[in-house]
Specification:
Blueprint (H helix, E strand, L loop, with lengths): L1 H14 L6 H24 L2 H6 L1 E3 L2 E3 L2 E2 L1 H8 L4 E4 L2 H4 L6 H15 L3 E8 L2 E4 L3 H10 L4 E3 L4 H6 L4 E3 L1 H10 L4 E3 L10 H4 L4 H6 L5 E4 L8 H10 L3 E5 L18 E3 L2 H13 L6 E4 L10 H17 L7 H12 L3 H32 L1
Parallel strand pairs: 3-6, 4-5, 4-9, 7-8, 9-10, 10-13, 11-12, 11-13
Antiparallel strand pairs: 1-2, 5-6, 5-8
Length: 369
């Protein structure tokens, strides 16, 4: 009965009176469409446990574990922020990885959102990890498989442990209707990618999965201009936070302009809601520059990157092993400065991401009232 009442209300809003101006009618039309979209999301969310607890596969079923805190927040329309787990197992050494993971979740909570770190443990995809599960993942380190979208089925079928990358985390976040995902930086087109065709699946995922990704841009070990061109081809809205330039992960600027600038969490939330309401079917990239006080000297980082790339080629390190090698080597060459910068930018992204999630939840609550 409630559904039909809302539909009738929407029809009445759309019909309006002859005295209304076209501008007012347009606003009401958008509001009506927005209410329907939010209603659909609400109805979907009430069925989350059923939808993800039993996913049919040949010969059995796959269970996805959603933490009760996350499930409850989603059902109530509260702000939830997805977090990846590769940064824990492959991005940092122990114990900095565990300390950072705990701190990032704390920052998300303090800013009004519920954190949902995503990983695959013993073949079970988990959305939201307990402290013990975070500790387990941190101590597993690189023995947990780095899991992109292509690896999900294999890791689950074998009952293994997988640390989800951007693409896999986006997939699971979208499955349970988490709209915001925070990470350090995304993958992209690798340097000399025009010859190697080495392009991260993160970009493809952004082109087909409706999740907003808050990050510090593209890792500076990659080809940033070509990455932005590829994102444009995929139709991904790429926005820079409080700047007109796309950030370069360790440094604030890459020298590449963006077509979309956002200056507040509310700006971000409005774009995300418009994209979802229009059913564009793509992700949104919100690039947040590293805080100035933590930005290391660009030429030092760039010099270290070139040396690390040379060493990777000499040792025939390619594919999914290349990025962890390069990041670790750059950290060694810069005396730990890049790791400190990495931790600082992840925390800053968590702060912004939580604020965006809260603003988005408020917009949806207002539309539904």
């Amino acid at each position: 009965m409630r559904f039909w009442w809302v539909v009738i209300s929407v029809i009445n809003c759309l019909s309006g009176s002859d005295s209304k101006t076209s501008e007012q009618a347009g606003d009401m039309t958008f509001s009506a469409v927005s209410r329907l979209a939010n209603l659909r999301r609400h109805l979907d969310l009430t069925q989350i446990d059923n939808k993800v607890a039993q996913v049919s596969v040949v010969g059995g079923s796959v269970k996805v574990k959603v933490a009760s805190e996350v499930s409850q927040a989603l059902s109530l329309g509260r702000a939830v922020v997805a977090l990846e787990s590769t940064i824990i197992s492959h991005g940092m050494p122990y114990p900095q990885n565990l300390e950072t993971a705990i701190e990032v979740e704390r920052i998300v909570r303090e800013n009004g959102a519920v954190p949902a770190t995503i990983a695959i443990l013993d073949g079970t995809p988990c959305v939201g990890l307990s402290l013990e599960e975070l500790k387990r993942l941190a101590t597993l380190g690189t023995s947990a498989q780095k899991t992109a979208r292509r690896d999900i089925a294999n890791v689950v079928a074998r009952g293994e442990n997988g640390a989800t990358t951007v693409s896999a985390t986006m997939f699971f976040a979208s499955m349970v209707n988490i709209p915001i995902f925070v990470t350090g930086g995304i993958g992209g087109v690798h340097r000399h990618g025009e010859h190697t065709m080495d392009v991260s699946s993160d970009l493809v995922e952004l082109g087909k999965t409706p999740v907003a990704v808050v990050c510090a841009g593209v890792k500076s070990i990659l080809d940033i201009p070509r990455t932005l061109e590829y994102l444009e081809t995929l139709g991904v809205c790429t926005a820079a936070y409080k700047t007109n330039e796309f950030p370069a992960f360790f440094t604030e600027s890459s020298g590449c302009k963006v077509s979309c600038r956002v200056d507040s969490p509310e700006d971000c939330a409005r774009i995300i809601e418009a994209s979802f309401t229009l059913n564009l079917g793509t992700g949104i990239l919100i690039a947040v520059p590293i805080p100035q006080e933590h930005s290391t000297s660009g030429h030092i980082i760039e010099s270290a990157i070139h040396k690390a790339i040379e060493e990777a080629r000499e040792n025939n390190i390619t594919g999914s092993a290349e990025t962890p090698f390069l990041l670790a080597r750059v950290n060694d060459l810069t005396g730990g400065a890049s790791l400190a910068a990495n931790i600082a930018l992840v925390k800053n992204n968590a702060l912004v991401g939580a604020q965006v999630a809260v603003a988005l939840a408020q917009i949806r609550k207002t539309c539904e009232s």
